[in-house]
């Protein structure tokens, strides 16, 4: 038995294939979805999205979004989904620094600008964690 997994960002469909299982970073913690899972809709937060295909684990950095789970399908709609091997540590470090600088000037930011900077920092930290944990 397998699951059909779709990972979609505003720019493109990042992944669309059959998998054995998928682990999602939700606001309630990580959940692992296997075939015949109970249906649900959940919020995705920046973190590590892992899918297993043919006993091989594949890692992606995910951003904010949602996932819809049915008994044989998982659809993930997120603002960021980057395979671990495509993560560029230098660029991520720069984005992290920019977000930290913006957050340090909190008094100059609108609520929307502050929320954007905080979200960017959270996504950068998640990407760095994945990149550094899976260094080869």
TrEMBL record:
Pfam families, per database record: ATP-synt_DE_N (PF02823)
Membrane-topology descriptor: Peripheral membrane protein
Major place of residence: membrane
Coiled coil start-end: 85-131
Keyword Ion transport: yes
Gene Ontology MF: a single term: ATP binding
Domain ATP synthase F1 complex delta/epsilon subunit N-terminal: 3-80
Keywords: ATP synthesis, Cell membrane, CF(1), Coiled coil, Hydrogen ion transport, Ion transport, Membrane, Transport
Keyword Transport in record: yes
Localisation per UniProt entry: Cell membrane
Listed GO CC annotations: plasma membrane; proton-transporting ATP synthase complex
Oligomeric and partner information: F-type ATPases have 2 components, CF(1) - the catalytic core - and CF(0) - the membrane proton channel. CF(1) has five subunits: alpha(3), beta(3), gamma(1), delta(1), epsilon(1). CF(0) has three main subunits: a, b and c.
Function (record text): Produces ATP from ADP in the presence of a proton gradient across the membrane.
Family: Belongs to the ATPase epsilon chain family.
Protein name: ATP synthase epsilon chain
Organism: Candidatus Curtissbacteria bacterium RIFCSPHIGHO2_02_FULL_40_16b
């Amino acid at each position: 038995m397998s699951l059909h997994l779709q990972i979609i960002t505003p720019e493109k469909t990042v992944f669309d294939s059959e998998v054995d299982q998928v682990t999602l970073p939700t606001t309630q913690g990580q959940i692992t979805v296997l075939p015949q899972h109970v249906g649900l809709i959940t919020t995705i937060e920046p973190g590590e999205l892992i899918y297993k295909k043919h006993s091989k684990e594949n890692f992606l950095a995910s951003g904010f979004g949602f996932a819809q789970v049915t008994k044989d399908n998982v659809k993930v709609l997120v603002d960021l989904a980057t395979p671990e091997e495509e993560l560029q540590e230098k660029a991520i470090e720069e984005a992290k620094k920019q977000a930290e600088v913006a957050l340090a000037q909190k008094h100059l930011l609108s609520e929307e600008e502050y929320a954007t900077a905080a979200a960017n920092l959270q996504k950068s930290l998640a990407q760095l964690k994945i990149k550094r944990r899976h260094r080869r």
